[in-house]
Design goal:
The model has no long low-confidence stretch (mean pLDDT 91). This protein starts with a helix and ends in an 8-residue tail after the last helix. It is mainly alpha-helical.
């Protein structure tokens, strides 16, 4: 591998690293929203069924 190829590889890895840093918070946010939506749906189903909701500790 010569210098030009090595610089290209380093540049590509830097871009991919920045992309991962930018995408990670969005993915975490989506997963958090899905968890909250699932909890809301479960609470609504329990309410419809007439079962008491569990209290958080």
């Amino acid at each position: 591998m010569d210098t030009t190829q090595l610089q290209g590889l380093i540049g590509m890895l830097a871009v991919l690293g920045i992309l991962v840093l930018m995408i990670t918070p969005a993915v975490i946010g989506v997963l958090h929203e899905r968890r909250i939506d699932r909890q809301i749906k479960e609470a609504q189903e329990r309410r419809r069924a007439g079962r008491p909701m569990a209290r958080a500790a």
